[in-house]
Amino acid sequence: MSSRLNPYISFDGTARQAMEFYQQVFGGNLQVSTYGDAGASDVPEADKIMHSMLETDSGFTLMASDLPPGMEHRPGNNISVSLTGDSDEELRGYWAKLSADGVVAVPLEKQMWGDVFGMCTDRFGITWMVDISAG
User: Fold this and answer.
1) What's 63's DSSP letter?
2) CB atoms closer than 10 angstroms to residue 55
3) Which of 11, 85, 118, 122 has its CA 20 to 30 A from that of 93?
């Protein structure tokens, strides 16, 4: 898999409905994982979306999730840029440059779903998520 760049939208509990709507608009294949699917089945947010991805026949990719508890939902400012792929060196290089002089919210490290993931806000206020596929 090569690296890709796409929008990532955060919702306040309506990610499933929004992504199903976008699937109706654009078509394509929608994959959805809940917090419960990731092992957090005993929390009130278990049915909320931890990660979803819509890939269309036109080549569009849109990702979204519901915000976890404690994170502020800011409509209008709830879109991040996601960098994903399996090139460890390439993606770590992007991470180093994007996080320099910025704020790291989630350090770039192995996560419970197996990938290496990090989230930062660059010096211009843009939120970036970097996900290096486990395989």
Assistant:
1) E
2) 17
3) 11
Q: pLDDT by residue (tens digit) across 73-106?
A: 777 667 888 989 998 998 999 999 999 989 999 9
- Angle, CA of 93, 50 and 76, to the nearest 5°: 80
User: Which residue do the tokens 């990702």 mark?
Assistant: 63
Write out the two tokens for 30.
Answer: 């929608």
What is the predicted pLDDT for the residue at 1?
Answer: 62
Angle at 45 between CA 40 and CA 46, to 5 degrees: 45
Neighbours of 80 (CB within 10 A): 19
Cα 57 from Cα 28, distance rounded (Å): 6
For residue range 56-67, list pLDDT tens digits in order: 887 889 999 998
54 vs 30: CA distance, rounded Å: 4
Per-residue model confidence as pLDDT tens digits over 15-53:
999 999 899 978 899 999 998 888 777 777 789 999 999
Cα–Cα distance between 131 and 5 in angstroms, integer? 11
